[in-house]
Write a sequence for this structure.
């Protein structure tokens, strides 16, 4: 039963989310927490891990949730569930897209999806930031804590590097190195 549930939930997520893994985050968080498969903190931790591992984000997180929930069979069920809708949709779209590419309705749909995807990604960023920095509530002490200030500094430096077109692999490696280094500073538990 759990395998079918994993497959169907991730199939739904894969079928109704446009824009890739980051746009899926709000749905994944909602479903996984609602079913009690992972806690919000576990999801945030895995998001960090999945960013530094190869492969598509949606595949990484669905595989992880499936593995944690029902072992190897769960990983396969969740991964197939999240990938299959895209596979089916791409097959259909590839067959008919050329005929409808210049259609006003199709063009309008594509233009309308762009801001929705940006909004979903923005919502994911805010949700993750809230869980990371304000998991125990908002207080002035959090904003002045060394952990928050170091994380904010890392974010600012990495944002500058990203805008300067530094390769993403280097940015990820630098972020990991700074985070590991900060973990060795007494009294800081990043």
């Amino acid at each position: 039963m759990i395998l079918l549930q994993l497959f169907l939930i991730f199939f739904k997520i894969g079928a109704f989310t446009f824009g890739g893994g980051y746009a899926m985050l709000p749905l994944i968080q909602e479903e996984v927490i609602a079913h009690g498969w992972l806690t919000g903190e576990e999801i945030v931790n895995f998001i960090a891990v999945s960013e530094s591992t190869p492969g598509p984000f949606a595949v990484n997180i669905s595989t992880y949730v499936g593995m944690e929930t029902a072992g190897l069979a769960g990983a396969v069920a969740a991964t197939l569930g999240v990938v299959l809708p895209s596979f089916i949709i791409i097959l259909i779209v590839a067959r008919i897209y050329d005929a409808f590419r210049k259609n006003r309705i199709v063009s309008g749909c594509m233009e309308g999806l762009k801001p929705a995807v940006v909004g979903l990604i923005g919502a994911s960023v805010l949700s993750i930031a809230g869980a990371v920095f304000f998991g125990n509530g908002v207080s002035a002490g959090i904003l002045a804590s060394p952990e928050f200030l170091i994380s904010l500094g890392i974010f600012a430096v990495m944002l500058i590097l990203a805008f300067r077109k530094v390769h993403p692999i280097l940015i990820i490696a630098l972020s990991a190195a700074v985070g590991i280094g900060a973990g060795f500073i007494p009294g800081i538990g990043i």
Q: What stands out?
A: The mean pLDDT is 83. The longest helix spans residues 57-100. The chain has eight helices and no strands. The chain has two domains: 2-136, 139-190.
